[in-house]
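Retry 2 of 3 after timeout on previous attempt. Resubmitting structure tokens to design endpoint.
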């Protein structure tokens, strides 16, 4: 970091310190996977169900077409969330893995504190935190996923995709991740779709309403005993009702066929 950047960052820290939200210097670098504290362990071990059955969303998840949803998400309507089942402000809760080792629902009560404390944070997933169906990406292989107007993405096919993004305070843990395509994670070439669509919408809303909270739920949609979800349904409800949305995020990639039971894929 050059002198000018350091001076700018120091001023930002001083400003945040006055708000009681000072950022530690470690947040500007990649962080290690966090350990669960005692209260988080209690939540981790306490199974809870979602108000919606994931299987109810399968017809919509399987109806994806690139010409209809090139940004890999569709808006389903109002969130229909019940704030009573959410953790206290600034906390996350992750349900245990199911009997197949698959990630289940994750919930968070997102605050401005979560946002500020996670600026420039990118946590590492430990090797033992890979989600179900994860086969990794071959080294030095770049996959091309065609998008709109002749644009395309080139890079890894699979991502460890957060249910609750690290930018919103989510942890780099298996209970908070699924095996997701790059396009499921960020959408097309402009990176404004997929999970990023709703993640950025929530972040920007909180930045404009710093005293409010957003109840945030992410629910993977699996078909039968498959290890990779067909989609993730994300619901967000602000404490004042100004943000109230349920989004289907499709876990697929234009031009490819995915074996959701194993994570294998091939170009069409």
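Retry 2 succeeded. Sequence:
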């Amino acid at each position: 970091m050059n002198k000018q950047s350091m001076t700018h960052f120091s001023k930002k820290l001083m400003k945040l310190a006055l708000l009681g939200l000072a950022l530690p210097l470690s947040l500007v670098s990649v962080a290690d996977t966090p350990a669960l504290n005692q209260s988080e362990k209690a939540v981790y071990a306490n199974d809870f169900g979602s108000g919606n059955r994931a299987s109810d969303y399968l017809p919509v998840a399987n109806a994806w077409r690139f010409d209809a949803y090139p940004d890999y998400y569709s808006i389903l309507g109002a969130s229909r969330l019940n704030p009573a089942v959410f953790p206290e402000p600034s906390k996350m809760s992750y349900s245990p893995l199911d009997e197949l080792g698959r990630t289940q629902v994750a919930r968070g009560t997102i605050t401005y504190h979560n946002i500020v404390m996670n600026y420039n944070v990118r946590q590492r997933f430990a090797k033992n935190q890979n989600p179900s169906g994860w086969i990794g990406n071959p080294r030095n292989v770049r996959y091309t996923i065609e998008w709109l107007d002749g644009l395309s993405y080139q890079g890894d096919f699979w991502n460890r995709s957060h249910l609750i993004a690290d930018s919103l305070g989510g942890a780099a843990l298996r209970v908070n991740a699924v095996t997701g395509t790059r396009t499921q994670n960020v959408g097309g070439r402009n990176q404004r779709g997929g999970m990023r669509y709703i993640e950025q919408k929530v972040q920007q809303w909180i930045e404009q309403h710093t005293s409010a909270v957003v109840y945030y739920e992410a629910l993977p949609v699996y078909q039968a005993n498959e290890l990779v979800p067909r989609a993730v349904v994300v619901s967000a409800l602000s404490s004042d009702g100004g943000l109230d949305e349920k989004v289907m995020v499709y876990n697929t990639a234009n031009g490819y066929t995915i074996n959701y039971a194993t994570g294998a894929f091939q170009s069409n």
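Attempt log closed. The chain has two domains: 1-30, 31-267.
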